[in-house]
Amino acid sequence: MSNRVIDNDFDRIILGIDPGTNIMGYGVLGCRKKEITLVSMGIITLGKIDSHALKLKKIFERTLGLIDSYHPDEMALEAPFYGKNVQSMLKLGRAQGVAMAAGLYRELPIFEYAPKRIKQSITGSGSASKEQVAGILKSILKFDEIPKNLDATDGMAAAVCHFFQGGLPTSSKTSSSKSSKKHGSWESFISNNPDRIK
Asked: Is 50 annotated as catalytic?
């Protein structure tokens, strides 16, 4: 796990989650205007837990722990990809749902991004490899070395992708009305990003 001291001057903090039933990756991103800083990045290992239900419980508890430790303003998750193994997709969807439930329990706005969209936003290619994503994140966020487990950088990639989207509302966004007023209007986007409107 990589950690840096939380700066109270951040405009917002984004928690990125790469859901999984054996390994869940996460990244905590500090944002100040157009600058982003790595706050924390790591993995939560679940492989030694035999019961799928207990894995979901651990995902919920650990996600709540991340939220309570870093006080993010928003949560960005990688959406499950469609595969041929229906059982694997079902388990992955449950893992994502439990992580989302933890965010909603703490009244965070939730943003969901397809894997290809995350890769596209980071590397410019929706078919980029995990290694390519990790390498560009290393350059952007200036961390010393790429983690051995790339689920950590996948979690961070979700957070960075959300930052690059400017916090714009999307069809896959879920949020409380309180959070929507804070982050989800064109008026707030225009006022916060006047240089991006031409």
From this structure: no
